[in-house]
UniProtKB/TrEMBL annotation:
A Pfam family that the UniProt record links to this protein: Glyco_hydro_17
Protein name per the record: glucan endo-1,3-beta-D-glucosidase
Statement: the UniProt record of this protein carries the keyword Hydrolase: yes
SUPFAM superfamilies, alphabetized: (Trans)glycosidases
């Protein structure tokens, strides 16, 4: 076999392996129903810092599209229910919108989905009838621009589109929606677009706490719910709700349509009656959700199936009407501090997964710049820590104790560590988009003292001579690589 042929063979093998390796992604919904949110540029920095690769917005705001340019972040944009009429009425409206509002920013801004209408079955004024014609016109506009394979068109739904969701095998769409739902499903099947659904075990629990256990809603259940028709065991409500949709789709003979979860989450605060709305429960739900989907566990009906999910929401949104919980779904406060820690990689505690021991004998650890981080990532992390991260960076200014050595890595290390210590020294606080790593050797040198947990700037003003940083033993925070990616590299090993 000629080497050229061999090369092509390897490439094809590689592509095939990557093809089957589109593992589930976890994105975040960037809702903006608030009057106190940071600027779009700041938000993009925050998103990058947390390594979030997929973001959903609810409109096509130009400032936001511009802010995401050249970030590589995949963006789902939306057409609101109020705008459906013009899109449904005339093809030219969809063409004009695409030409003026989207194409100028594409592909620098990596738009991958357009949601046409949102939860139309919950909307007033019977907008349901408009949604499929609007989807068709948007699709046609994309096809004329040659983008219909790169940007998928769909529409989001609430679980209320089902008339029955339990047991999952009895899942069925409410027949009153058939007039628009059937054409929509035909559209999705024809264009290989996903069925988008917003899934909220929180509401199911809140509104029916006598029948639903909190553990089942939070993915913490030790007991299982059995579907009597299939005999399948459900350990969490998320899976049960998704399978109810699969069965509803199958009942109408749409077997190829994939499901995408365009919103899910848990509020961290609520009215006195909403006792389950706590930071602990929100952290538990979202942590377990990420762990559950990230390794393509799938559901009992579709084991191993990838499911892309979007966590609702990036920020607490102070202008949302309704119960107290409505304004408290955020992962972040408007000042960009975390409502609770959340590890988007789903790897959980680094110390246990890597088997490495990053705490020193007295339990102290530090966070420094990774030797493998790019200059760009170090710069971003440093700038962020010294601004939004609220780190006091005066020590790395000229003539101050930590200015020398005057290098990006050294300054970033100082700033990363201060942020890390001020934020509880958790593994997440040392992430910096992969640019930070933890170490058990004190990086302090000469007069430059690195903070430790509980110490503070002012206390760390005097000289203590420590081993130089070059001798520090540094344990790389492991990078989670899906097994299938490792396989994909085998041809080169
Ligand atoms: C909504 O509009 C559709 C199509 O015009 C119609 O079939 C359906 O009955 C309407 N539903 C309501 C609740 O008015
Ligand atoms: C089905 O939808 C109709 C119209 O929205 C609603 O009145 C009815 O209660 C729904 N049925 C069920 C079983 O949810
Ligand atoms: C709990 O389930 C029972 C039996 O299915 C039902 O009658 C009752 O309405 C449910 N309670 C709530 C609060 O949903
Ligand atoms: C994926 O995660 C689930 C739930 O945490 C676990 O039960 C399962 O063993 C994991 N699968 C793989 C392949 O790691
Ligand atoms: C890490 O090191 C400390 C101190 O050497 C030791 O007490 C601790 O048990 C170690 N932890 C693990 C998981 O090895
Ligand atoms: C722990 O030990 C390190 C040196 O290894 C020292 O710098 C640090 O101050 C100690 N922390 C505490 C809380 O004693
Ligand atoms: C250390 O300083 C930071 C910022 O100046 C402050 O937010 C934090 O509460 C302080 N920590 C301690 C333990 O004093
Ligand atoms: C700093 O050094 C000065 C003079 O060497 C000393 O008086 C002071 O107590 C030291 N402060 C601390 C916090 O160690």
């Amino acid at each position: 076999m000629g080497s050229g042929f061999r090369l092509i063979f390897d490439c094809i093998l590689l592509l095939m392996l990557f093809g089957i390796c589109q593992s589930s992604t976890v994105g975040v919904c960037y809702g903006r129903n608030a009057d106190d949110l940071p600027t779009a540029d700041k938000v993009v920095q925050l998103i990058q810092l947390h390594n979030i690769k997929n973001v959903r917005i609810y409109d096509s705001n130009i400032q936001i599209l511009k802010a995401f340019a050249n970030t590589g972040i995949e963006l789902m944009i939306g057409i609101s229910n109020l705008d459906l009429l013009p899109f449904a009425q005339f093809q030219s409206n969809a063409d004009t919108w695409l030409k003026n509002s989207i194409l100028p920013y594409y592909p620098a801004t990596k738009i991958t989905y357009i949601t046409v209408g949102a939860e139309v079955t919950e909307a007033p004024n019977n907008v349901s009838a408009l949604v499929v014609p609007a989807m068709q016109n948007v699709f046609t506009a994309l096809r004329k621009a040659g983008l219909h394979r790169k940007i998928k068109v769909s529409s989001t739904h609430s679980l209320g589109i089902l008339s029955r969701s339990f047991p999952p095998s009895a899942g069925a769409f409410n027949s009153s929606h058939a007039f628009f739902l059937r054409p929509m499903l035909e559209f999705l099947a024809e264009h290989q677009s996903p069925f988008m659904v917003d899934i909220y075990p929180y509401y199911a629990y809140r509104d029916s706490s006598s029948n639903v256990s909190l553990d089942y809603a939070l993915f913490e259940s030790s007991s299982e719910v059995i579907d009597p028709n299939t005999g399948w065991l459900y350990t969490n409500m998320f899976d049960a709700q998704i399978d109810a949709i699969y069965f509803a789709l199958m009942a109408l003979n749409f077997r190829t349509i994939k499901i995408m979860v365009t919103e899910t989450g848990w509020p961290s605060k609520g009215s006195p009656k909403e006792t389950a709305a706590t930071p602990d429960n929100a952290q538990t739900y979202n942590t377990n959700l990420i762990r559950h989907v990230i390794n393509d566990t799938g559901t009992p009906a579709k084991p191993g199936e990838e499911i892309d999910v979007y966590i609702f929401s990036l920020f607490n949104e102070n202008r949302k009407p309704g119960l107290e919980s409505e304004r408290n779904w955020g992962l972040f406060f408007p000042d960009q501090t975390s409502v609770y820690n959340l590890d988007f990689t789903g790897r959980g505690s680094l110390d246990t997964t890597t088997g490495s021991n990053i705490t020193s004998s007295n339990g102290t650890s530090w966070c420094i710049a990774s030797p493998t981080a790019s200059e760009d990532d170090l710069r971003k992390g440093l700038d962020w820590a010294c601004s939004s991260g609220n780190v006091d960076c005066s020590a790395i200014q000229p003539s101050q104790p930590c200015f020398e050595p005057d290098s990006l890595a050294s300054h970033a290390s100082y700033a990363f560590n201060s942020y890390y210590q001020q934020n509880g020294a958790t593994d997440i606080a040392c992430r910096f988009g992969g640019a930070g790593i933890r170490t058990n050797k004190n990086p302090s040198y000469d007069n430059c003292l690195y903070m430790t947990l509980g110490s503070n700037k002012t206390a760390a003003s005097n000289a203590t001579v420590s081993p130089s940083r070059s001798s520090s033993s540094v344990e790389k925070v492991s990078v989670w690589i899906p097994g299938c990616l490792l396989m994909a590299f085998l041809p080169f090993l």
